[in-house]
Amino acid sequence: MLFRFNICIALTIVLVFISSDKLQAQAPRYIISLKDKQNNTYSLATPSAFLSQRAIDKRNRQHIPLDSTDLPVSPVYVDSITKAGNIRILYTSRWFNYVAIQTNDEQALEKIRHYSFVTGTDHTGARVNPDKRLTKQPDTIAVSARDADLSVYGKAATQIHLHEGEYLHNNKYRGENMLIAILDAGFISVDKNRAFSYLRAHNNIAGTYDFVNTTTNVYGNNSHGAECLSILASKLPGEMTGTAPEAAYLLLRTEDNEYEQPIEENNWEAAVEYADSAGTDIISSSLGYNTFDLPFTDYTYSQFDGHTTMIARAAAMATRKGMIIVCTAGNEGDKSWKHILSPADADDILSVGAINRDKVVTAFSGRGPTADGRIKPDVVSLGAETYFVNTSGSIASGFGTSFASPVIAGLTACLWQAFPDRSNLEIIQAIKAAGSQYNTPDNNSGYGIPNFHTAFDILLNKQWQDSTKIAVALNKNWIKAFPNPFTEKVKLYLHNPDGRSINLQLYNNAGQLIKQTILATGTGYIYTEWPEDFSDLPQGIYYLHAKKGNEKSTIKLLKF
Asked: Which end of the chain is more exposed for a tag (fewer CB within 10 A), N or C?
C-alpha cells in the first residue's frame, strides 16, 4: 500500500495566493525579488512547519542539511505586497526568494518597487496576441495505432526491454513507495482514463496543482502530460504497462500551451519547490525552453551553460535538495537551433535524447554539448514510435524526446527503490555507467542506452564493497583491475617485487571458468593488461582470481 504524507503543508506554505475578482485573467505577471528573509515566522529548527515529514526523512537519509534556501519567503513581506493594491499573488519561491504576482494596478506596482526589501520587479509574463506568436511544432508527431503485442507489457515491451527494465520489475521493484512529480502542460482524462484505474484505486495520485491558473484542477488544457504519465504509470496488463506502475505521482501543470513566456520557467521552478516540500524523489519533465513569443526574451546558445537560465538553476537546486531531475533534451536537432533545450543543460541531472527502434539517434533529438563544453544529452531512450495511452484510452505511438524522458524517469524510480540509501548522485552515476557507450560518450547520445540490470549490479557491487569491505581489502594487497565496469579490455596494476609468474582466472557469476592466462612480468610495480579481448563476453558479473606463489586475490568485475 502506498505511503501517506501530508501534501497540504506544501500547498499552504509554497503557494500563498490571494484571489481577486477585480483582476483580469490576462493581467501581466511580475517576479518581485526580495532582499532577504527578515521578520520570518519560520525557523530551520522546526522544518515540519514548511516541509513534509517525508521530505525531512529524505534529506536526513542523504545527509543533506537544511539551509536558508529552505525557509519560506517572509510572510511579512508577502503581506505588505498583498496590501499594496489590487494584487494577486500566484506563488512564492523559497529557493530564490521572490514572489510571483499578477496585476493591472500600476500604482500598486510602483509602491512595491519602493519597498526597502524589494530588489527588483521583473515584468516577465507579458501576454501577446495569438496572431503574433511564433509557430511551435508539437512534440507529438504522427500518432498512430499499432498491432497488439502479446507480452506482459503489451505495446510497451520494446521501450522497457531496451533498458532491461523488466529485470527490476521481476524483482518487485515497480516504483512502490517512490514519489514522482510530472511537470507538463495538462493531464486531460487522467481522472477518468482506464489506463489510470490502478493509479486512482490505490490513491497514487498524491497531489495536483496548476501553476498557470493557480488551481488544483489539472485535468484540462492539454493531453501531453497525460500521455507522458501513461508511459510511466499505465497498468493495462497485456496492452500497456508503464515503467513505474506502482509509484505515486504529483501532477503539476506549469506550461501554458497557448503561449510561450519566461514566466513558465518560474512556474516550473515553483512546481519543483512544491515537489521538494512534499518529499518527491524523481522529477519527470518533458518541457524545455530556448525561444519565446517575444523575441527579445529569447536565449542564446552561450547562455546554455547550466547556470544561467532560470529553469537550469532551479534544476541544479533540485539536485542539491536530493531529487533526480529527468528531462527531455528537446526536439531541435533537425532545426536551426540544433542544440538541447534548458533545463537539459543543467549539471547532475539526466537529460534524455531520442533513438529509434534500430537504436539510432533520431534527427530531431537535441544535440550537445552545453555552452561550457559538457557532454549532453546524458542518455537516450526510445523516442520514435514510443507507445502511450491517449485520452480515449486507446494505445497509440508518437515521436519526441518528450516520450523518451518518462521511460527513463520510471526506471530510475524503480532502481532507486531497490537502493533507497543511495544518494541521488550515486543513482545518476550508476545509470550513466550502465550506458552502452559509457567509455566513449558523445554529444548525440551522451553515455548511450542505459541498461538498468547493469545499473542494479553496479549499485549492488558498491553495496557489497561498502558493507563487507572485502573487495577494498583485497584490492589493497597487490593487484588492481580497471576499468570496472569494463567492456573490452581489463587493465591490471600490480606489485610483483620478486618477478613471479601470475596465474589469472576469470569466472562468471555461476562459478564457471571462462578465461585463464599466465602473465610473465618484470619486478616491482607493473602496469599491464589481460592479453585477451573480452568484447565477446555477455554482460554480467565476473570474478577475477589472481595467484602468485601463495598469495591470492579476488576482484569482482562488471561487464557491459
From this structure: N
In angstroms, the CA 367 to CA 559 distance is 28
Dig out the grid coordinates for 358 from the structure: 534500430
Tell me which residue has cell 500604482.
107
The per-residue pLDDT for 141 is 33
Tell me, which fold does domain 469-559 have in CATH? Immunoglobulin-like (2.60.40)
Residues 6+ apart with CB under 8 A from 446: 351, 353, 368, 375, 376, 377, 378, 379, 380, 432, 435
Residue 205 pLDDT: 97
Q: How confident is the model at residue 467 (pLDDT cuts 50, 70, 90)?
A: very low
At the topology level, CATH places domain 132-420+437-462 in Rossmann fold (3.40.50)
- Residue 536 identity: D
Note the pLDDT of residue 527. 65
Distance between CA atoms of 461 and 351, rounded to whole angstroms? 25
Class of residue 433 by CB neighbours under 10 A (exposed 0-12, middle 13-18, buried 19+): buried
Q: What is the pLDDT of residue 248?
A: 97
Q: For residues 495 and 78, give the distance between their C-alpha atoms in angstroms, rounded to a whole number.
A: 66
Beta bridge partners of 210: 215, 253
Any idea which of 24-28, 106-110, 115-119, 496-500 has the lowest mean pLDDT? 24-28
